[in-house]
Design goal:
The protein is of the alpha+beta class. The protein contains four helices and seven strands; from the N terminus they run αββββββαααβ. A seven-stranded mixed sheet has the order 5-4-3-6-2-1-7. The radius of gyration is 18 Å and the shape is elongated.
Length: 164
Amino acid sequence: MIHRVLLGAAVSVIMFTVGVAGLGWKPYVVMSESMAPSIHAGDLIFVDPHAQSVAQYEIVTYNDPRGPVTHRVVAQAADGALTVKGDANAQADTRAVDRKHVVGPVRLILPHVGWPVEQVRTHPVKIALGALVLALLIPGRRIFALILLGALVAGVAMVPTTVG
């Protein structure tokens, strides 16, 4: 019974994610608390790269030398440069963000859905060992279970992340 519930939940999340991604939105998992309380580490966000404009106070994801960053727009210059700030930060970021570096605005936030990605990124050895132990404890088709768990961990590790 519990296997069916877990399988149904997993399939539902996958179908929802594929459906939203079908809109052209890009998924990211937030890895820090800089956007708390709006967005937390482990939340899955969807960013619209096709948006034509960005409004003040909108949350956006942009490319930075340290990787994708998700912060709130607090001001816009006449040349289109954005001043951004993490909600949990006291001050705005020191560098303005050129509009060409903006991936897009955040359109959807799914709390805690990115938790597995966060765990794989922050504790890869523990997750791999846990998956191995779990696969060895599952009766029956152990090779199949090992391959399935390995594929799941690899798939989760490939989801892009952002500093929130």
